[in-house]
């Protein structure tokens, strides 16, 4: 089902794709960021279907300014996104969290759970900057990642089809993977196959969805 939550400081509800039957285990999923959000969405939804069959409720949020959100992405930053995930966790009574790729940088600090193939904020930016420099070179323009990053910190940038404000660019660059006793890392090797974020187009991989759901359900049962 499609549900909604209201992020801090906003009057506009944000969407959540949910399997909610009011069960004991309630997993908040913080999605990957930017282009990876789309290449991994099918995998996450299929994982949620399997978790539902195993008796686990799950909630995949839209971050403000992404997907169907009416919020302006250029006005968001890493701190506002983390406040949004915290509000979503409170609204839906989440007991655990799964942060995926760059989404691991934004998980609520109070929840136990997992981070799947996490990357630092600098790596998120490097992927976007690399795509822009390649596109610029093909168009006959010379731009470097270093000069773009400095410009972005003061004026914002268009990266990968996303308009990012200076606070987002600066804030992401300072974000690192959290180290917490109740937070475990799920490496891609534990799921099998190549990372879905490496594919040029969104795709489906039932075996990876099986493996990711099984990893989480077994951890919840232990």
Characterization of the model:
The chain is α/β, with parallel strands linked by helices. It has two domains: 163 residues, Rossmann fold; 55 residues, no CATH class. The chain contains eight helices and nine strands. The strands form two sheets. The chain has a seven-stranded mixed beta sheet. A two-stranded antiparallel sheet has the order 7-8. Strand 7 and strand 8 form a beta hairpin. The radius of gyration is 17 Å and the shape is globular.
Map the helices and strands.
Blueprint: E1 2-6, E2 13-19, E3 26-30, H1 35-39, H2 41-53, E4 57-61, H3 78-91, E5 96-100, E6 113-116, H4 121-138, H5 145-155, E7 157-159, E8 162-164, H6 166-174, E9 183-186, H7 188-191, H8 206-221
Parallel strand pairs: 3-4, 3-5, 5-6, 6-9
Antiparallel strand pairs: 1-2, 2-4, 7-8
Helix pairs in contact: 2-8, 4-6, 5-6
Protein name: Alpha/beta hydrolase
């Amino acid at each position: 089902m499609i549900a909604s939550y209201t992020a801090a400081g906003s009057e506009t509800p944000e969407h959540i794709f949910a399997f909610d039957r009011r069960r004991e285990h309630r997993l908040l999923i913080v999605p990957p960021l930017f282009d990876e959000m789309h290449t991994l969405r099918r995998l996450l939804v299929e994982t949620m279907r399997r978790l539902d069959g195993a008796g686990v409720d799950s909630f995949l949020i839209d971050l403000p300014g992404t997907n169907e959100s009416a919020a302006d992405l250029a006005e968001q930053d890493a701190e506002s996104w983390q406040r949004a995930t915290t509000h979503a966790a409170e609204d839906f009574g989440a007991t655990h969290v799964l942060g995926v790729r760059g989404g691991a940088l934004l998980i609520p600090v109070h929840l136990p759970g997992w981070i799947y193939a996490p990357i630092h904020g600098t790596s998120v930016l490097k992927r976007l900057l690399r795509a822009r420099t390649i596109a610029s070179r093909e168009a006959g323009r010379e731009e470097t990642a270093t000069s773009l990053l400095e410009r972005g910190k003061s004026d914002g940038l268009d990266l990968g089809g996303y308009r990012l404000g200076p606070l987002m660019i600066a804030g992401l660059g300072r974000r690192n993977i959290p180290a917490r006793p109740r937070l475990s890392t799920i490496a891609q090797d534990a799921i099998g196959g190549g990372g879905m974020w490496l594919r040029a187009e969104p795709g489906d991989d039932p075996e990876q969805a099986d493996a990711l759901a099984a990893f989480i359900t077994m951890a919840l049962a232990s």
